[in-house]
Amino acid sequence: MFESLTDRLGSALRNLSGRGRISESNVREVMGEVRTALLEADVQQTLVDEFCAEVVQDALGAEVTKSLQPAQQMVGIVHKRLVSLMGSAESGIPLVEPGPTVILMCGLQGSGKTTTCGKLAAWLKRRGKNVMLAACDLQRPAAVEQLRVVAEGVQAATGGARCAYYGEPERCAEYGKAVGVAVQVAQRALKAARDGGYDVLIVDTAGRLHVNDELMRELESVDRAVGAHEKLLVIDAMTGQDALASAKAFHARLAVDGLILTKFDSDTRGGAALTARKVTGAPIKFIGTGEKLDALDEFSPERIAGRILGMGDVVSLVEKAQQEVSEEEAQRLSDRMAKGEFSLDDFLSQLKTIRRMGPLKQILGLLPGVGSALKGIDIDDHQLNRLEGMVNSMTRRERNDLAVLNPSRTRRIAKGSGSKPEDVSRLAKQFEGMQKMMKQMAGMGALGRMQAMKQMGSMQPGMGGMPGFNPMARGSTKTVSPKDRFRKAKKR
Predict the structure, then answer these.
(1) 320-491 CATH pick, 1.10.357.20, 1.10.260.30, 1.10.569.10, 3.40.640.10
(2) CA within 20 to 30 Å of 265's CA: 62, 131, 236, 374, which one?
(3) Angle subtended at Cα 434 by Cα 429 and Cα 435, rounded to the nearest 5 degrees
(4) pLDDT in tens, 234-274
(5) What is the pTM of this model?
(6) Nearest to 120 by CA among 168, 182, 149, 163
């Protein structure tokens, strides 16, 4: 998300670089470009004008025009104002004692509400809370079944606490014919959650248009029936300002406690994310960053503003890594690398960890300065399947000693992984180079290791030295034929 906005803002602010001390007219000129960028990102014009006026005032007040580093100061001022525009961080769910805490989920049709119910349940379950999901979207029989499948997925995917499902699919036939069917199901779900000792009850309601008065009254009735402690509105970030107009109406009618923006990983303009708090009056609490159940992040205005300005989001990257790698495993791998014992099995383990963290381009985009460098580069995660397939097609002996690879073995590995023999040779060559470098680093000091790491960046196996880790990159290193490799192994 924000790729276009990041490029435009970065280009505008870079225009201040190299000018030394600048004039007030320079600042206003740059903010004219920023204004265009924000309008193209689907931010409301009144908010854009207000934002730009505040930045200019801050810039002149801070005497940026007299600074020797105006571009850096302007980035800081724009960052601060972006954070202010998006509102303070109010993520998390306040829980009540005794439970259950009732969370009412509402939103427009197609906003991803039912899937988000599952993501929120997984988020709570990872924090040790027992969660029940209640299917009160009786307008769509498929939604009841979908929530059941989602609940089973949450229970299977995360350990520890429980995740249960409550639904009455047979009541779907009555929906629309009898009054208060959804309310009755919600009330029984609340009783089941209390009897079962659950900490949280998440109530999934039917998607509705804010202009449909009958459905909005039903939503208000469900709210009163279960006494919701937290009302969360799910918004599709791809629908921009249209979604925010609907959200404003929901908030006026229901007094929602927070927003969840879905499809945040999509290639959208970003206007909804930037202005949701300002337009609706409700804070953004979570953002959906992918299709998996763990792809729900707490909203942080500081981090989002950093991403928009190309400053990266290292904190989110570390948090993702911590979820996938235990401290013991990280220490074990660090010790092996320090001794120069990094093997293909270790590499495969690292590769799987990265895959679990999310799409590679998304992960790399969290690194400072990398997001803009990835523009126009197509990173196909399916290519990593071939890389993983080549390693998995090797025997234990071949993984431990690549020198044994001869033409016959190389052809077998290529055939087993759906790749070409030269791809296998390239992987072996690059990995041997990386192993050699790591052994040299084992005896170096900290400064020497840092210099070696820079050099090793272009030697990562299968990556071809291309920014963005483009596996199977052609012609990036000289490939040694399997025959030559085997001859060298025999000489040893």
Answers:
(1) 1.10.260.30
(2) 131
(3) 100
(4) 988 777 677 777 788 888 888 889 999 888 766 556 677 77
(5) 0.65
(6) 163
